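Write out the 3D structure for:
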Amino acid sequence: MFKSRSAWGRVGGVLVSVVLATSQVSPTLALAAASVDKAETVHVQLDGSGQVSSIRVEDLLANDGGAQQIADRSTLTGITAEDEKQTFAQGSEGALTWTTNGDAVSYEGTSEATPPVKMSITYTLDGKQVDPGTLAGATGHLVIHIAFENSSVSQTANGTVKTPFVCLTAATLDGDVFSNVEVSNGRVIDDKGGLAVIGYAMPGLKDSLDLNEDELDLDLPEFVEIEADVSDLVMDPIYAIVTPELFTDLDTDGLDLGLDDLDEGTDALRDAMGALIDGSDTLTQGLGQLADGSGQLGDGVTALREALGLLPSGVSALTEGLGNLSDGLSAASGYASQLSGGAADLSEAAGTASGYASSASDSIDNATSSVKVLKGEVDKLDLARDKELIEQSGKQAHAAHDAAADAETAIESAVASASQDLKTKSEAAANAVGEALGALEGIPEEDLTEEQRQAKAKLAEAEAALEDVDLSVDTSALEADVKTLGEAAHTLDDNAGSLDTDAKGVDSVTSGADTALKELSAAKGATDGAAGVVSGVADGSKALSAQLDAFAQQVSGASAGASALSKGVAPLSENLPLLLQGADGLATGANALSTGLSAAASGSGQLTDGLKTFDNEGISELVDALNELDDGMGDISDKLDALREAADGYDTFAGKAEDQTGTVRFVYKTPAIG
């Protein structure tokens, strides 16, 4: 009636493939795929012998409608929500009311309940059973026997059966430690020195089906056994995924007529496996590209760290240079202000000298008028009166001479004093401007700000202007004219005396008057010229003072800017150690990221190869087995219906509300060895 043992063995292999694929799904995806209200993942931590040491349950409540509150029920203790803003109120008999804020609720807690499937493990080394706590570093022939016992009984409309749990066992083995690996009720996958052992068991299924073992050589295992030679034993934890979900979608309506529906399901399963393999390939490629990119990131971080190492000395030099620039600009501003004051003093002195020159010019005009009158009177030959007039003209000529001499002295004194003071201050200003300009020229052109470039140009203009300043005044012509005026006065004195001696003095007087007129006219021109020169000096000094004031303001602004920039650089210098420390951490993280991504890419490649193996062997075996079972499934239809009902009925471990739908799976984990 039923086919050979090999057909059921292939079915078992396919079950492993299916459970492996479905068991890797997160609770969130499981909930979405099954369209259930509550998805549970029960994490069972075992000790070395398989005794339960702790149970932690993760629950996910769907909230597709965005409800603000969800009714729930749970026997868990120490319940905590993943989102701290989501809270719950607890009622009687484990009733919970969650405040959701419109989102799905994810929470976890602990349980003291007994799992429906017991997982027991025994270790045998070289034929002797040993405590797993003594196995670390062991060498010899090791046998690991993993047994499952199903204690969950379900009453269904089609009879009493044990809940059909499928137990998938998975272990990863180091190829340098394990050799000659074999597994009962499973498969060993060898990938480049890394070994993966997958085993399966279906505890209680044989009893539920009530099969006649005398007529059937049917293998429905309830244990997994791993056998290998080991050297210096170390071993990662063994995992087991226990779930009834494989039977919840079992459709038995057409089993007595054929397996058409199962064939369609097989096609869908093959398509799903193809999509899973394609996704794994894409993940492997992406991880490889990401690993390459992380290597480039590491190189860039290393270059950044080297560049940052040069910053402290550069920032220190920049800070010192900006301080010197600020000091130089401040000094230049002070010198420019002093120079402006000297120019103002020179302008004032030149104004005073201009007044003296004007006074001398008026005296010369008076002397000229007197000489002209004298000459007219001499022409009338009134010697006595002419002598008086000559004497009066002489006095006036002497007065003009004295006024011109005073003007000469004042001009020379003012010019000498102002020129010396201006020269001293001009030299100081030139030195300050030179220092400020030198400080700016010490900064590379590409590092200058726009304000610094403008200040540099203005300093260069000021330096050139100070070199071209020439405020000297030539007073030699004025000295000659004063001398001539004195000689004319003495001539008048001599001519007046000559009138007492001889009438011929009249001719001398006439001649002397003509000479005096010429000399007075020359003195007049010289005095007016000196007045013009002094006036020009006054105007030029006044303009220079205004320019120096403007320059002082510009230099002061540049000094303030340099000072502010120097203060702005200070925080950079203070924070450089933190920046360097962060760069070191970034370099370490980049290296770790590159290593981790490379390992992830390798692991993803192994997963892809494993999935391809399951697809090529497991799915194909399923198709062959279903074809062989086409004429032998009618009698077992009712029992399969009962198993499906039992699987559907086992939808929670820690409890759920009456109107909730649910799904549950268990993840067992043993301690690592070594």
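The chain has two domains: 5-256+637-669, 328-569.
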